[in-house]
Amino acid sequence: EAFRSGRLMLADTKDFSTAQMAPNLELADAVKRTFEEAYENNDRQSTFFSVKINFMKEAIVMMFRYGKFKKAEEYFKELAKIDGDPKKYRTMEAFVMHRFTEEVRDASVKKAGELVASLIWRSLYFLVYNEHDAAVANERLARFVYKSYMSGTAKGQETRVGLPPYDDIKKGVVENCLKFFPPAMSRILKAKIAEEQAAEAAGDKQK
Q1: % of the chain surpassing 90 pLDDT
Q2: Fewer CB within 10 A of the terminal residue: the chain, N end or C end?
Q3: Number of C-alpha atoms within 13 angstroms, CB side, residue 181?
Q4: Residues 137-162, buried b or exposed e (16+ Cβ, 10 A)?
């Protein structure tokens, strides 16, 4: 349980209302070792091996979503040696993305839109907490899910079953975050967005 929610995050160290719990991914190796010991101490029963495999798959996705790309890659390579599933994918990122593809493959437009919006929300949430890599990872997932869903809509029927433009979805999520986040978090988000816009403007001038 500490693995899934054993780390405290503060967006503003002077405002404890911004405190949130997050996974303590540093415990992943200890959890995996516990499963390995259980497997060895119980005559290598397949049940314990399956539990370890499932944990590693969950850990890879969680590590990616929290921006721990190097550790996720390490687990992916180890998993590929002992389980056939990862061998289907060339990269760790492809493995993670496929798991989201499964969620959106037969989704209704409402469910797909909610999934994209929730990933954008998580990206903004991590941006507020200065978890840059996690913010980037969730933004990439949001764009991937959006493109995956839209590529599955019938040609010429996008207005009927497709999603609104990605930028419109993101704009709506940003507005909701600014409206419903605690004041301290809203102030930080506004500042972060202003920083990003200034950086983008500076980049455009250099082109």
Answers
A1: 43
A2: C
A3: 26
A4: bbbbbbbbbbebbbeebeeeeeeeeb
With a CB cutoff of 8 Å and minimum separation 6, the contacts of 147 are none
Give the pTM: 0.78
For residue 24, give the H/E element and its range. Answer: none
Closest listed residue to residue 147, CA positions, set 171, 112, 108: 112
The closest alpha carbon to 23, from 61, 70, 73, belongs to 61
Q: Which two tokens stand for residue 41?
A: 């101490």
**Amino acid present at 124:** L
How far apart are the C-alpha atoms of 62 and 67, rounded to whole Å?
9
When pLDDT is cut at 50, 70 and 90, the band that residue 6 belongs to is low
Looking at residue 82, what is its pLDDT?
A: 86
Token digits of residue 4: 């899934």
Please indicate whether residue 43 or residue 155 has the higher confidence score (pLDDT). 43
Ranges of H-type helices in the chain: 2-5, 28-41, 46-65, 69-82, 92-104, 109-128, 132-151, 158-161, 166-180, 183-206
CB–CB of 84/139 below 8 Å?
no
